[in-house]
Amino acid sequence: MNRIVLAVTLLAAFCLPAAAQYSAPPNSGNAFKDTAMLKPPAGAKVAIFKFEDLECPACAHAYPIVHAAADRYKIPIVRHDFPLKMHIWSMDAAITARYLQDKVSPATAEEFRGAVFAAQQSIASKEDLANFTRRFFQSHKLNQPFVIDPTGLFAAEVSSDYTLGERIGISQTPTIWVVTQKTWVQVTDMNQLYATIDNLESQVAANTPGTNAAGNSKLRHATGVQR
């Protein structure tokens, strides 16, 4: 077997265990320790909540699916970094993404994350990541500082995310939930992401006075209307 393919296969096995069979009752998934923070941001009824590692092949696979779902349903993504200790460059990549988010724009940071995932199989070392990052800055006509994080601010932000993940009790990346203000469902099979969002949106609508949940769901699928 090609060594690169073998390495990717092994990394994927570490990042994401075999997908569990989907059942989707509220508050379902792994035996997490503390799920109090699994809620949408203020003003949102439903959201996708995820922890990811930029060096994880399973995260790279999930990334476009999650973002396509968020665009389709017009729901926010609450993302947290969880760079696995066995990965040699994921922490550095997350720090760069935080720098771009704070110093350039959230959109540029998101573009960087997507580009890293797309190029992931060609990044085998910190040197490869440094070369990739330099090209990204150049292609976007950005001045890359000699030291991305001189004060350790962005490293602290990533570490705070990691600590939050440990508090929840996650053990793999990606860990993804669809959340409402009252319930959450872990998505272990990306093929079930849309169905999970549909189910929780229907639950929210059913509990909202004057809303016909079933009718709204049927209309969206019959007409392709996106919210």
Helices and strands, with pairings:
Blueprint: H1 3-15, E1 46-52, H2 57-73, E2 77-81, H3 90-103, H4 106-119, H5 126-139, H6 153-168, E3 175-180, E4 184-186, H7 193-206, H8 213-223
Parallel strand pairs: 1-2
Antiparallel strand pairs: 1-3, 3-4
Largest sheet: 4 strands, mixed
Strand order of the largest sheet: 2-1-3-4
Helix content: 40-55%
The DSSP helix count reads 8
- CATH homologous superfamily title: Glutaredoxin
Strand content: 5-15%
Structural class: alpha+beta
Average residue pLDDT: 85
Search tags:
227 residues; alpha+beta; Glutaredoxin; 8 helices; 4 strands; 9% strand; disordered N terminus; disordered C terminus
Could you explain how this protein is built, in words?
The protein has 227 residues and is an alpha+beta fold. The protein has a single domain, classed as Glutaredoxin (3-Layer(aba) Sandwich), CATH 3.40.30.10. Helices cover 50% and strands 9% of the residues. A four-stranded mixed sheet has the order 2-1-3-4. Helix 3 (90-103) runs antiparallel to helix 4 (106-119).
